[in-house]
Design goal:
single chain; 5-stranded antiparallel β-sheet; 15 strands
């Protein structure tokens, strides 16, 4: 099911549920809601009358309120004589009652302080009180199916101490015209809502599904290997972010594809050199008498080892990134291992004029895989020697603090530009205009360091600038 269809279904389902609730309220609860509203309006009229008696409001305000609320009102003094009488626009019941019936209704209210609304039923020209055990409220019924009405009474004392009684008659149920009007309005609202919802669905579908479909189409092109594609779909913030993310992914895949091509070219070149040497010396030893010497055989052996090291680097990196390499954790002295590697490497390169300085404040033990950590340090050391330029000096520092041990390897070569730093830890990276290469490499050394340190939950990084050399480091927990 497409997103466009789901939007149609969800919006229409929500609209249908909302309209069902509205119609249910109209059919089941409308009368009760109307009754409660009218009771509140009647009580508000009584409050206005009380304020008028106390001189707070003018009498004109009562006329406006009575006309607006569609009620009628009679005010009696302490002797139950009428002092004010105001009939509403509709047929008023209390003005049809005799004075005696009015007084009896008021007495029933004042005799039961829990009841302010009275229910009456009209028989011929008289009214009798009808009670219901389920409610303390009362209604007044007419004899010709006209709207039901209520009586409300309140006893007050003005600021001078004079007593008054207010009797109000208000409509208790909506007339047929109100019910018909309400249902007509609800029907119109229902039809309008359906039309509006349909247009809303079309707009939402276009603004949501169209950009996603566009992104999907371009993603298929991206999956075919065309990385020079820009995801420019726009819409809601999430779609914009998705589009920007896909564009970023396309750019990164393009860079990765470039690195992959460079890697193939570099590996092809690096493999071709030793293979050429091996093939050349083997042919010489075969074809030229006297050339089957130990020196020529040693060249073949050395080049074979070189090939084996290159293949091992590729395999090791693939295993780590596939999660196949698990560290064999054990306690060992990191300082002694680094010192041994530095000493052995110094002996090998002493004749070439290189010098390695190892600085540390104390010996440190760690819980780690010694083989993996030693290879990380060896890769950083060889990398520093390869790019140390004319000074031919490398400084190794071990810094132990805050439960961590940090190993730094510093060279004094040409450094790395800011543009290249984000990519030096990537697989196959090896070319940079700001660096000088003295040995052949697959460009996997730093990527191996990054992955080996990651399996130890450690961190690695570099601090470098063009013309000032580079400091590579890694950091792991110490005991």
């Amino acid at each position: 099911m497409t997103l466009r269809v789901k939007i149609h279904i969800y919006v229409m389902a929500f609209l249908a549920a909302l309209l069902m609730v509205l119609w249910f309220i109209q059919v089941v609860f409308f009368n009760e809601i109307y009754r409660q509203v009218k009771r509140q309006e009647v009580m508000q009229v009584a409050t206005v009358m009380e304020n008028i008696i106390n001189g707070i409001y003018p009498m004109q305000q009562l006329v406006e309120v009575v006309a607006d609320k569609e009620v009628c009102i009679i005010v009696y003094d302490g002797e139950m004589n009428q002092v004010h009488s105001l009939d509403g626009p509709r047929n008023c019941v209390i003005h049809k009652m005799t004075h005696t019936e009015q007084v009896e209704a008021i007495q029933k209210v004042l005799g039961d302080h829990t009841t302010q609304f009275l229910e009456y039923e009209q028989e011929d020209e008289t009214y009798r009180l009808v009670t219901r055990s389920s409610s303390s409220e009362f209604r007044l019924f007419s004899d010709n199916k006209s709207p039901q009405t209520i009586l409300y009474a309140r006893e007050i004392v003005d600021k001078y101490g004079d007593e008054y009684t207010i009797l109000i008659n208000g409509q208790d149920e909506p007339v047929e015209s109100i019910v018909t009007t309400t249902r007509t309005v609800l029907t119109v609202v229902t039809l309008f809502s359906m039309v509006f919802a349909w247009f809303l669905i079309l707009i939402m579908a276009r603004s949501i599904s169209d950009p996603i479909e566009e992104i999907n189409d371009k993603a298929k092109i991206l999956a075919q290997g065309n990385y020079n594609i820009n995801f420019d779909a726009r819409g809601y913030r999430e779609i914009n972010e998705l589009s920007d993310t896909m564009t970023y992914a396309s750019q990164e895949l393009s860079k990765l594809e470039k690195l992959r091509q460079e890697f193939i070219a570099n590996v092809s070149h690096d493999l071709r050199t030793p293979l050429t040497m091996i093939g050349g010396y083997a042919e010489v030893m075969r074809d030229i008498p006297g050339e089957n010497s130990a020196e020529n055989a040693q060249v073949i052996i050395d080049e074979t080892k070189r090939l084996n090291n290159m293949v091992s680097e590729v395999l090791n990196l693939s295993k780590v990134q596939a999660g196949m390499t698990k560290p064999n954790l054990q306690i060992y002295n990191l300082t002694e291992n680094i010192s041994n590697i530095v000493q052995n490497t110094s002996e090998l390169i002493r004749s070439e004029g290189y010098r390695i300085i190892f600085e540390y404040d104390k010996k440190v033990e760690v819980m780690a895989d010694s083989t993996l950590i030693d290879q990380c340090f060896y890769n950083l050391l060889i990398n520093a020697l390869s790019y140390s330029a004319d000074k031919k000096e490398v400084i190794v520092k071990q810094i132990a603090e805050n439960g961590k041990v940090r190993v730094e390897v510093t060279d004094f070569g040409k450094g790395i530009s800011k543009e290249d730093i984000p990519y030096i830890w990537e697989r196959y990276y090896k070319n940079s205009n700001n660096r000088i290469r003295n040995v052949n490499s697959t460009g996997l050394g730093l990527s191996i360091v990054k992955n080996f340190i990651a399996v130890h939950d450690g961190e690695c990084g570099v601090e470098s600038s063009v013309g000032k050399g580079s400091t590579f480091w890694f950091e792991i927990d110490m005991l």
